[in-house]
Each structure stands twice: as structure tokens, then as C-alpha cells.
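Progress note, sequence design subtask.
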């Protein structure tokens, strides 16, 4: 069942659990996510991000993800993550994505507000939900690595102003998290999460979920995180599954696929159970 982000995150906030968002840049990833969600009767979000489009163009992603979501036995939101340009977000809308993140976090504050507010106006007219980001979640390495991540943490007072003026449905926060592999265990600012949740009244989003400890996830959810993004762990599991298949003597892509999918399903199951969303796939009211 294809739904938007509010159908999943508003109940998550009330129930003190989080919904996993998993990037799926091929059909095997999509199967691993949606089949596991169905097995666990869990709501789930799946999609892609602008930085991943070189691996699989958005149009191709839409061709497999949206029909799979429509046929799923649980609520599935198809989300375009970290949209960096207005045009690409519009493309996602035209292709049938039910949620977009318009990431203007590196722009000056007033520009971030104005651009995201315009995106919200357009998307809400089409029944599509919008995620914004305030502060900036950097990378653990490479060009996106921040020398002093705390300089870019989300300010709770500004977060309240930002959410009111933009009208977003969910807010991505920078609280000690980062994209990619963590070299050292991250130290999340749980008090900051709690205060931002109180002052905004919105579902909060934790990017860079791969590598955070189980206890860190549980505490973050209790303080107001309702959506957690996972890609690196899923990607690594798929690669290891293929290696296992090769070691087992699988001699074709068809023979390797079950190993790849099963390895990724194990990660999705672990995250869904950890986030507390298993058994929470209630149909939204029509």
C-alpha cells in the first residue's frame, strides 16, 4: 500500500517507535526491504537519494519501487532523499514519489526557509509530504566530512522558527550523526533531540543511521526520532551476501541473488526490530 510520510511518522511519534528508511538502488534491495517489512508487519520507507542516482536513474527506481509499494501488504512510503535541486524534486513528484526531502541545509538560513517553504506549497497541493534539514549532517569521510560537526548542530530555537515558516512534515537534525561508516562510535546529543522535538512538535529524522549503537537508537527514538535512514549497512550486507554465494560455489547472477537478498533482509529485520516498528503496520484512515 503506497502512502506518504505522515501516514507513517505521525503514528510513530505517538507510539514512540521509529520507521526505517532504506535506500534501494536495485530490485534486490527493494525486495529485501519490502518483503521483510511484510514478514514483520511493519511500516517502512524506501527510495533513493540524489547522490545515488549515478548507480540507478530516478526513473528506473520509480519503475520498480512504486508498483512494489502499491502491491505491498504493509504501508510503504516511496521517498526521494537529499534532493539537492528543485528540478530533481519536481521529477520525483512527476514519477509518483509520495515524499521528498529538499535539502537546502548548506544554504543561508533565510534561503533555506524560502526554498523549502515553496517546495512544501507545491508538494502539499499534490498530497506529497516534505522533509527539511536544519543544521547540516556531514559525512564521515571524503568531501562531505566536517572538521567540527558540532558547529553545524541543529539549533532548537531556530528549529521552531524553521518548522513554522516552512510548514515541513518532518525535520532532519544534526545531533552528532554523520553519513557513511563511523570510524569511532558517534556521540549523539540526546538532550538536543528532546528539546527540538518539544519545540517543533514534528517527527524528527536521524540521518547516518548505519553504525549507531543499539542503545543510541533506542534512546534517540524515546527522545523524538521517528525516522531513521539506513543505507551503508544494507549495501555492505548485500556485498557480503554475494561473497558468501561465491564461496558457496554459486556460478551465476541468478544463483547469487538469494544470498544477496537474504543478507540484506537480515539487516532490515534487525533494524525494524530495533526501531520498534514491527507489528505497527496499521492501515491509515481513508
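Output:
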Amino acid at each position: 500500500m503506497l502512502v506518504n510520510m505522515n501516514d507513517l511518522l505521525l503514528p510513530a511519534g505517538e507510539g514512540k517507535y521509529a520507521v526505517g528508511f532504506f535506500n534501494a538502488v536495485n530490485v534486490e534491495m527493494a525486495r529485501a526491504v519490502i518483503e521483510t517489512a511484510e514478514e514483520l508487519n511493519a511500516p517502512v520507507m524506501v527510495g533513493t537519494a540524489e547522490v545515488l542516482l549515478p548507480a540507478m536513474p530516478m526513473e528506473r527506481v520509480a519503475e520498480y519501487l512504486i508498483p512494489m509499494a502499491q502491491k505491498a501488504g504493509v504501508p510503504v512510503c516511496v521517498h526521494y532523499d537529499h534532493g539537492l535541486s528543485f528540478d530533481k524534486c519536481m521529477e520525483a513528484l512527476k514519477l509518483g514519489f509520495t515524499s521528498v526531502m529538499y535539502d537546502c541545509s548548506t544554504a543561508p538560513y533565510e534561503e533555506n526557509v524560502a526554498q523549502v517553504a515553496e517546495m512544501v506549497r507545491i508538494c502539499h497541493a499534490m498530497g506529497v509530504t516534505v522533509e527539511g534539514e536544519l543544521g547540516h549532517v556531514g559525512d564521515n569521510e571524503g568531501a562531505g566530512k566536517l572538521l567540527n560537526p558540532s558547529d553545524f548542530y541543529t539549533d532548537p530555537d531556530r528549529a521552531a522558527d524553521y518548522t513554522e515558516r516552512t510548514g515541513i512534515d518532518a525535520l532532519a537534525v544534526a545531533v552528532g550523526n554523520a553519513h557513511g561508516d563511523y570510524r569511532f562510535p558517534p556521540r549523539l546529543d540526546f538532550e538536543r533531540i528532546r528539546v527540538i522535538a518539544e519545540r517543533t512538535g514534528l517527527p524528527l529524522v536521524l540521518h547516518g543511521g548505519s553504525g549507531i549503537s543499539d542503545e543510541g537508537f533506542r534512546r534517540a527514538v524515546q527522545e523524538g526520532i521517528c525516522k531513521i535512514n539506513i543505507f551503508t549497512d544494507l549495501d555492505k550486507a548485500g556485498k557480503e551476501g554475494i561473497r558468501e554465494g561465491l564461496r558457496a560455489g554459486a556460478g551465476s547472477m541468478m544463483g547469487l541473488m538469494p544470498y544477496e537478498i537474504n543478507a540484506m533482509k537480515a539487516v532490515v529485520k534487525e533494524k525494524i526490530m530495533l526501531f520498534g516498528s514491527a507489528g505497527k503496520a496499521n492501515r491509515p484512515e481513508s
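The longest helix spans residues 253-275. Work on this subtask will continue into the next period as scheduled.
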